[in-house]
Every structure is written in structure tokens, then in C-alpha cells.
Design brief:
Blueprint: H1 2-93
């Protein structure tokens, strides 16, 4: 009987050792999966950062263009107003021509 118990104990130890190795391999595979997911997410983050950078550049250029257009519009309005005032002033200074010759 002792021999059977020793044999059973050695088989149990072998199974426990094999189970430990299996768990280690499973954990290693799980780590590989986690690393793969981390790599995928890192690529997504990098792509999002690139997109945000492009959007920032575009909005900056649009903002500068909008400011230039607003300034140009103000200049045009000021010039239009100046011409209108000048025209009104000239009209005030015009003297009516009276026909002095009889017909």
C-alpha cells in the first residue's frame, strides 16, 4: 500500500507541477493579449493626436483668415462711408446754375 500512496503522491505532484506550468503559459498568453490590445490602443491614440493636430492647424488658419476678412470688411465699410460723406459734402457745395439768358 505504501508503494501505491507514494506513486499516487508522485502523480499528484506531477499534475500540480504541470498545472502550474499550464497556468504560467496561460498567463503569458494573457499578457501577450494585453500587450497586443495596448499596442492597438496606442496606435488609436497616436491617430487621434494626429487628427487633433490637423484640426488645430486648420482652425488656426481659419481663425487668421476670418480676422483678415473682418478687417478687410471694416476697411471697405469705412471707405464706403468716407466716399458717401464726400459725395454728400460735394453735393452741398454745388451751386445751382441759373440760366440768365432769356429765351
Amino acid at each position: 500500500m505504501d508503494e501505491v500512496f507514494k506513486y499516487q503522491e508522485s502523480i499528484t505532484n506531477a499534475l500540480l507541477h504541470a498545472n502550474d506550468k499550464f497556468q504560467q503559459v496561460e498567463q503569458a498568453n494573457n499578457i501577450e493579449g494585453v500587450l497586443s490590445n495596448a499596442k492597438d490602443y496606442h496606435e488609436k491614440v497616436v491617430n487621434i493626436k494626429k487628427s487633433l493636430s490637423l484640426l488645430k492647424d486648420r482652425t488656426s488658419r481659419l481663425r487668421v483668415r476670418a480676422i483678415k476678412l473682418i478687417e478687410e470688411k471694416k476697411r471697405e465699410d469705412a471707405e464706403r462711408q468716407r466716399l458717401k460723406e464726400r459725395r454728400e459734402m460735394l453735393e452741398k457745395h454745388l451751386e445751382p446754375v441759373v440760366d440768365t439768358q432769356p429765351e
